[in-house]
Design brief:
Blueprint: H1 6-9, E1 12-13, H2 46-58, E2 77-81, H3 89-92, H4 100-111, E3 115-116, E4 128-129, E5 132-136, H5 149-164, E6 171-175, H6 177-186, E7 201-204, E8 207-212, H7 217-221, H8 227-242
Length: 243
């Protein structure tokens, strides 16, 4: 699997879809005003709704709803993951909270000054993000952690709205291929124009897009992603924002 793409990092692509402060178009499945927060009982993806409903019956004390973005709207950094984990964000209601991926992500954010407080895998731990925000390409937990293309496409309207409502947004980190590709499309580019490659970076309009493998336990256990590789991505982000 490719580790970098220097050519991408040297190109600047013009964005044609929602840049910070813009008003993204509504999806044909949701003709109302664009919003970054799906309804708690969002019906747009029948398979995901059925999965949520099933888990509401099994675990009524879990969040079991579309998980909203976490962090200040005026942040300059947006981190985009895949989707809520079943026993992570789907249980707790906060992105990357309650599973291994959160341990690595929040630890790394803290290392580079993007958080305040101690992450304790609990949405009531008092953790605050500093100049950073976290969202997912798909807002609801998918069966086997695998959203299908129609669900990714349908949920992109919420990712587009999240991007558009951040007036100071300067950098995006995408975690994994699905998050990367959906973000690229949300920014008005063809996937082929900004291919996924860990460690790559590209300019899209006024934004700098950084790419990483997802910080899942599977990727770290198999060596696809090491803490050093992950840290390097956020070191590049910090250097970009501090330049």
């Amino acid at each position: 699997m490719p580790q970098s793409d220097a050519n991408v990092g040297n190109r600047t692509l013009g964005a044609t879809r929602p840049m910070p402060g813009a008003s993204p178009k509504s999806s044909s499945k949701n003709p109302g005003p664009a919003t970054s927060k799906p309804a708690p009982d969002c019906p747009l993806c029948p398979r995901l709704k059925a999965f949520r409903d099933d888990w509401r019956g099994r675990k009524p004390d879990w969040f079991n709803s579309p998980v909203p973005a976490f962090g200040p709207v005026n942040a300059r950094l947006l981190v985009v993951g895949l989707a809520p984990g079943l026993q992570g964000a789907n249980r707790t209601g906060r992105p990357f909270t309650g599973d291994y991926a959160g341990d690595l992500l929040y630890g790394t954010l803290s290392q580079f000054g993007f958080s305040r407080g101690n992450y304790q895998a609990d949405p009531n731990d008092g953790l605050e993000l500093v100049d950073a925000r976290i969202a997912n390409a798909v807002s609801c937990v998918p069966p086997e952690n695998k959203p299908v293309p129609a669900e990714i496409n349908t949920c992109r309207q919420f990712l587009s709205a999240i991007i558009a409502e951040m007036p100071r947004l300067a950098a995006i980190v995408t975690l994994g291929r699905i998050a990367h590709d959906s973000t690229v499309v949300a920014l008005g580019q063809r996937r082929a124009a900004v291919p996924f490659a860990h460690g790559a970076a590209a300019n899209i309009g006024k934004l700098r897009l950084f790419t990483s493998y997802h910080c899942s336990r599977y990727n770290t256990n198999t060596g696809v992603l090491t803490p050093t590789m992950f840290t390097a991505v956020f070191a590049a982000v910090r250097a970009h924002l501090d330049a």
